[in-house]
Design a protein that fits this description.
GO molecular function, one term (chains A, B): kinase activity
Shape of chain A: globular
Distance between the termini of chain A: 37 Å
Oligomer: homodimer
Pfam family, one (chains A, B): ROK
CATH architecture of the largest domain in chain A: 2-Layer Sandwich
InterPro entries (chains A, B): ATPase_NBD, ROK, WH-like_DNA-bd_sf, WH_DNA-bd_sf
Keywords (chains A, B): Kinase, Transferase
CATH topology of the largest domain in chain A: Nucleotidyltransferase, domain 5
CATH superfamily of the largest domain in chain A: ATPase, nucleotide binding domain
Strand order of the largest sheet of chain A: 6-5-4-7-10
Number of helices of chain A: 16
Radius of gyration of chain A: 23 Å
CATH class of the largest domain in chain A: Alpha Beta
Protein name (chains A, B): Putative NBD/HSP70 family sugar kinase
Largest interface: A-B, 86 and 86 residues
Largest sheet of chain A: 5 strands, mixed
């Protein structure tokens, strides 16, 4: 099944190509000059988007194009309103300095949405990955995903109230968490779907910069994409990103590509059963991993009142509270237990901890590592790195922005100049 | 890390492209006529390899090329010695019949090797997937992988003793199981590596059709590739193939691409711990899934003597032996337990059972399904199919042949005509 995220990622070159076992399509017609220019513009824009201001001289080397081509491409991106070119302020060598190409990170932005179990967040994120504006609103317990549309649309409108006249929105994307909680604390496994993106587009018709063509994806998947693009797993091909909030989900990258599964519902690792006689889980099963490593497990072990944050327990442990410390290390041990399973299944280069699991891992890394070393197969743990996420709670927003920028990075001629013509 | 299997699959178009998050390479130069012809020859050869004899008229439609191009390509493949063209014996319509293009499945073959815990198998498999010759030898308990090289090389030489003068070997590949057993029954987790392929090539220097350029892969991965290419999961993008022998391994395809992991060691699902207080496993851990679903678990439950085959227990159950029946359904229940975990993690379209698990599933599908329906998340089990593998014990050999043919299918100009020039 082609899920919306998979479709968006296919545009991004990050999803599977058509099945090689199927009758292959005939080869594409030879790329024309126009197509090559478009690809080169995209390559240059993507480079400065990911790596920041870069001199023409460096771009010449990185993109493998000659100086005059680089100059022409940069000029075209300047004319399109996507980058600026400036003489560097600190030339390092003698001779005429190479102009520096920078993304126009204030003018050109993406709308990033994060629908979390207990809050809604909206960011405008500039080309280059800079957060320009960040707003949030509480999410009522027990509310359905579509109930969030008006509040999210309102946050987006607020975020665009003082836009410059020439601002350009390159697109929008939403990271949608897969759990919600009722008032009585019952956790439900839910999930996003295309209707949310469609409804959000519809709610914004006539507002701001026009239709954004929202796409959506699972929050853990999108946060994994962020850590894979700009975070601790940049450049790593095989990664398991674990996101803790009410439950535990994973975003998994294998061979440089995000695993989405048949219906975009892969990575529900919190519902991997690790204990046949374990506790009852919100999903109806028993002994699911998240019953031992979710926030509820930490609070239960720490005898902390509902509503206490994971961070509060971690802090109490650091201050010497022995109940909190036992709770932390008990959860960390179970965390290592499930990580070992995932390491045996995926043989990743790196496991990244995000959300509440980031706090747990940061405070009890030794306990997690010890359990992984006890349980994972030697060949699979040899090169394994365990890491706290580098982007913290912004990961879902940064990942959503990457997804939202993808059309523009693939074809910069879709940019502001095209819109104003 | 680029594992040999990943490298081979990349040639096959079935492995990840370079990381899209990295600075992209400049676009390739416009494809020349020669390159397009090569791609078209590959597309036609792959089509008849996978689908069997096909009329020019059908190829015209399937490949989206015009009739004269199809005629020229077919003529070139005939001249290369890779296909034949014949007037169909049963024309269905009036008018001049369309010539039928068939792979030369006796002349052109691949050398497929399957290194299993207790036997070594070698097959010559013709273009089109037909097994031309199949030989096996026992594998001594406790022997290392490299110990198998002389015996495998001898089987290959035997299989080529009566080759036709114009026979052409397109390449070789080995599927290597990841477990071995000592004489005392202790199971070890091992794995293949590049040295086996190199040693096998070296052992065959000067024999038969020259250097095969052996590649190797994990047996479960290669069997998964076979079911994905020619078996029950043909055309399916998201698949978990489970292979049972001494242990349990998986070959996993997500988004149409095989998951290999950092070092080619993904899919060790038998060592997913499902019971923290469970039985001691050969890997040193406790409560691994394979301690409940491997052959040893079936024999233990059935109180059958070591060396009894899984099939014998399944047959005894079918004949009404209540101990055997309880053993079968006990194992089937645990099988469903782990499958539910994998379904929550991967959200596959289909789970395929191979090796000894094929027998267990075929005899107790209802028990497996019931456990999956109890434990897997509703959204992930909705479209889920469970199936016995279609290729049976030949799956690793058929998958290895697909891997071995890949160079030729990518570039048919490497074929026999090139070799004889």
């Amino acid at each position: 099944m082609v899920t919306p995220l998979r479709r968006a990622l296919r545009r991004a070159g990050s999803a599977p190509a058509p099945d090689p076992q199927q009758p292959p399509a005939p080869p594409p017609p030879a790329a024309g000059q126009e197509e090559i220019r478009r690809q080169n513009l995209g390559a240059m824009l993507r480079y400065v988007h990911l790596h920041g201001p870069t001199s023409r001289a460096e771009l010449t080397g990185r993109l493998g194009l000659n100086r005059s081509t680089i100059g022409a491409l940069a000029a075209e991106l300047v004319a399109s309103g996507l980058v600026t070119e400036e003489v560097p302020t600190t030339p390092r060598r003698a001779g005429r300095p190479s102009l520096v190409v920078s993304p126009r990170s204030v003018r050109v932005y993406a709308t990033a949405v994060s629908v979390e179990p207990e809050r809604l967040r909206v960011a405008r994120i500039g080309l280059g990955g800079r957060i320009l504006d960040l707003r949030e609103a509480p999410r009522p317990h027990g509310s359905a995903l579509l109930d969030a549309v008006p509040a999210v649309a309102a946050l987006i409108r607020e975020s665009e109230r003082e836009l410059a006249a020439d601002a350009f929105c390159a697109g929008g994307a939403a990271a949608v968490a897969d759990t919600t909680r009722d008032d009585d604390g019952t956790v439900h496994v839910t999930g996003g779907d295309e209707t949310f993106a469609v409804a959000l587009d519809a709610a914004l018709v006539g507002d701001g910069p026009g239709r954004r063509g929202f796409v959506w994806g699972d929050l853990a998947d999108i946060a994994a994409l962020a850590e894979h693009t700009r975070g601790v797993a940049a450049g790593v091909d095989d990664l398991v990103y674990l996101h803790g909030d009410l439950g535990v989900s994973a975003g998994i990258v294998t061979g440089g590509r995000l695993v989405t599964g048949h219906g975009g519902r892969s990575g529900k690792v919190g519902h991997m059963v690790v204990h046949p006689h374990g506790r009852r889980c919100g999903c109806g099963s028993r002994g699911c991993w998240e019953t031992e490593v979710g926030v509820a497990a930490l609070l239960r072990r720490a005898a902390a009142p509902p509503g206490t944050s994971a961070l509060a327990v971690v802090r109490a442990a650091a201050l010497g509270d022995s109940t909190a410390r036992d709770a932390l290390h008990g959860v960390a041990d179970w965390l290592g237990f499930g990580v070992a399973n995932l390491v045996n299944v995926f043989n990743p280069d790196i496991v990244v901890f995000g959300g509440t699991l980031r706090e747990v891992y940061a405070a009890a890394a030794g306990t997690v590592r010890h359990r992984v070393d006890t349980m994972a197969l030697p060949a699979s743990r040899e090169h394994l790195q365990l890491r706290a996420g580098a982007l913290g709670p912004d990961a879902p927003l940064i990942g959503a922005a990457e997804l939202a920028f993808e059309n523009l990075l693939t074809d910069p001629l879709l940019g502001p100049a095209a819109g104003s013509q």
